[in-house]
Amino acid sequence: MQGKKLYQEKLFSSFQLSNRVPENNFYRRLKETLNLSFLYKKTQSYYGNCGQKSIDPVVFYKLCLVGYLENIISDRKLIEHCSMRLDILFFLGFDIDEQLPWHSTLSRTRQLFPEKIFEEVFTHILSMCVDKGMVAGHTQAMDSAPIKANASMDSLELKVPEEQLEAYLQKARYQSREDRKPKKNKASYDQQIITADKRELQEIKSRNRNWQRNQDQRPGAANKGAKYTSNKTHYSPTDPDARISVKPGKARKLNYLNNISVDTANHVITDVKAYHADKKDNQYLQDATKRLKHRLKKQGLLFTNLLADAGYSSGENYAFLEKENIISYIPPHGTYKGGPEGFTFCKEENYWLCPRGKKVTFRKRKMVTNSLQDHYLTKRSDCKNCPIKKKCLGKSHEKRIAITVYVEQYQRNNKRVRSKFGKYMKGKRQSTVEPVFGTLTQFMGLRKINTIGIAQANKVMHMSATAYNLKKLMKFMSKTAETMTRQAIVLFSSLRSYLDSLELVLRS
């Protein structure tokens, strides 16, 4: 007989979420594992003693975690999604007929709590991973990637000299009233003033001319009025902390730099930080290493090996890591050559000897583009009648050698990198930190920063990394439980067989 289902809402019903959410459900297991009650004490000082009750800080952080676990970066969509999921409601501690917090409450609470709260939660989850034996600590892989900021390149404004700033702002305000709705400029006074010197401005002009000349080979070639934009000449009034950056083959965007460190044992993230995107990776290595070493030390772990790509290469970094007793496996940057070909260095008397036996003597030590260099020079008379002068000097009248003062540190690092174990470490780094970045950007809500300011971006990155580590922890615990169950079954079967054989012996 054919059945036909008729739906009619009941006026009264008995319903319990705990009966509807399966025991092996991810969020049910996460609810049993995750304890964030320490947040009540940590956040108490940020609330008043009277007025309407705000969102529970534990509920707030759980909602944020769900957003990154479900790859949802919009607070409005997150609330809509959670209200439709029984397992998430059970994880949050809400009944089916309870109203979830308003989406704007999440944004206001995220701004209310400082960065250290989000970092403490990240460290708490990391401690749970350490307790389960997931983190070895001795070898860390470091890498960085640009994350798109919540600002458009169309919002860029031109930096002007300090004496012209007021007149420029008045003109901009008038233009805004005439053409478009005026926008609030969130940049500070210092961020609106141009700080580049004449040499840097001339370089930007030359680059701009070359860029426009070759624009037909670039994305967006149809826009012939476009100009090359630089952080030295432009800023974003929407998000002043965002910086213009570009990767080969991709368009120029306003980004933040996400720097992470990953333990090679089980790919657990051990450190994460938001930086400005207008600097090189090697300028952030020392800060990240100090913070990472301190965090691992508090967990009782010894940090001895650092793996990174060539972007982190510099003599200053190699010397710093040696001072910290950390072995580096960082390939040298392409600009490092270790001295001119055919020249011999005499360390005792500090000079170079050319192929014709002439000395290139030390003259001075100075800083060049954030790198400390030794400069050597020959006498003009030594090179005047040299048969290889044209090949050796080019258009110069004497031989000039500028080389980093950290040559020995470079050589020791390069020897490790080129060894068989160094090649193994390179593969280890590529299989550790790079897949983690792919997971964060594609599946853990880090494809774009949905907040304004570097402090808020840092909170977003910490929450995404926390969600990633939690997912790793739950998977590790599930595998461990399955392994222990199998071992128990095997042990029980062996014991049963032994007892059966013993019984047969006794009977006989």
TrEMBL record:
Organism name: Marinifilum flexuosum
Ranges where the Transposase DDE domain occurs: 353-474
Stretches with biased composition (Low complexity): 209-218
Coiled coil residues, start to end: none
InterPro entries: IS1182_transpos (IPR047629), Tnp_DDE_dom (IPR025668), Transposase_InsH_N (IPR008490)
Region annotation (Disordered) ranges: 173-245
Start and end residues of each Transposase InsH N-terminal domain: 16-111
This protein's name: Transposase
Skewed-composition ranges (Basic and acidic residues): 196-206
